[in-house]
């Protein structure tokens, strides 16, 4: 059966205006859990598209200790095969479940490249905008984020991978453009998180280079989010299907944390959180 709508809708950013700052001040990176209400996401397409299944998944992630739930209704899979979704189609997937997930009390981020979808989600109480095109695809995104005053995740992306380019230079130039767009729109700098976009518009080699050289992005003075969960570069090192990449995902995320990442985006909340906590405990004994 479908989830019933919540009796009232919380305001945008209802998790609190300082939700991001609070999470970033902790010694262990915050954990963002992936919730795809899509039929074609590369790792778990179709598993949580039904509202009741999505709610069960959200509750399970909360029980596992998730800090942020990142909900997306259009596959932004970094490989060929994702089917474009209209605004109406994306809304049809979100409307039956979003308000009920927000009502669970954990900050929710909306993973969409469409300003109209982000606006709807923020009005339903989502607290963070997650734009996989870094404010550079939909011209209405930056003004919307500025008007709402919510945090925004700015991810590096490319239409296709080019093994010949200097990927770090490309990422730095991309982020500089995104930050200029943000500044012109009036987005407060302390509301911005950068995401290297592991697997997006990058070869496997370039994804690993981005992780290895993550600290170079400290030049922007902004927190970094890394989402390497189940990505294909893992299979380039150790052949595996998406759901067989837990160990590789944790390895990548521990490296990211050591290199300064403040938020880790993952499909596997409990395992990732345990790894981050144990690594932090060991490092604290030095």
Helical/strand content category: alpha/beta
Name the assembly state: single chain
Q: Helix coverage percent of residues? A: 25-40%
CATH architecture annotation: Alpha-Beta Barrel
Distance between the termini: 52 Å
Radius of gyration: 18 Å
Specify the overall morphology: globular
Proportion of beta-strand residues: 5-15%
Q: Return the average pLDDT rounded to an integer.
A: 91
Number of strands: 8
What about the largest sheet?
8 strands, parallel
Instruction: Return the domain count.
Output: 1
Q: How many helical elements? A: 11
Describe the structure.
With about 290 residues, the chain is of the alpha/beta class. The protein has one domain: TIM Barrel, CATH 3.20.20.20. About 40% of the residues lie in helices and about 10% in strands. The protein is built from eleven helices and eight strands. α2 links the parallel β1 (about 30-35) and β2. The N and C termini lie far apart (about 50 Å).
């Amino acid at each position: 059966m479908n989830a019933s709508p919540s009796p009232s809708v919380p305001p945008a950013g209802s998790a609190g205006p300082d939700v991001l700052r609070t999470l970033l001040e902790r010694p262990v990176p915050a954990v963002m859990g992936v919730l795809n209400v899509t039929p074609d996401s590369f790792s778990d397409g179709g598993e949580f598209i039904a509202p009741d299944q999505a709610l069960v998944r959200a509750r399970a992630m909360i029980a596992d200790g998730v800090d942020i739930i990142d909900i997306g209704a259009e596959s932004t899979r970094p490989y060929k095969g994702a089917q474009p979704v209209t605004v109406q189609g994306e809304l049809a997937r979100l409307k039956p479940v979003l308000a009920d997930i927000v009502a669970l009390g954990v900050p929710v981020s909306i993973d969409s490249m469409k300003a109209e979808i982000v606006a709807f989600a923020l009005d339903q109480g989502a607290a963070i905008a997650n734009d996989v095109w870094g404010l550079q695809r939909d011209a209405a995104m930056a003004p919307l984020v500025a008007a709402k005053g919510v945090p925004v995740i700015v991810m590096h992306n490319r239409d296709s991978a080019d093994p010949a380019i200097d990927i770090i230079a490309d990422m730095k130039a991309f982020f500089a453009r995104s930050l200029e767009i943000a500044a012109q729109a009036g987005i407060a700098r302390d509301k911005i998180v950068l995401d290297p976009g592991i697997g997006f518009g990058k070869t496997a080699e370039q994804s690993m280079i981005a992780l290895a050289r993550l600290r170079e992005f400290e030049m922007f003075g902004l927190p970094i989010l890394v989402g390497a969960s189940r990505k294909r570069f893992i299979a380039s090192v150790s052949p595996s299907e998406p759901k067989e990449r837990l160990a590789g995902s944790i390895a990548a995320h521990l490296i990211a944390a050591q290199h300064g990442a403040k938020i880790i985006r993952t499909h596997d909340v409990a395992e990732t959180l345990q790894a981050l906590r144990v690594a932090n405990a060991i490092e604290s004994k030095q």
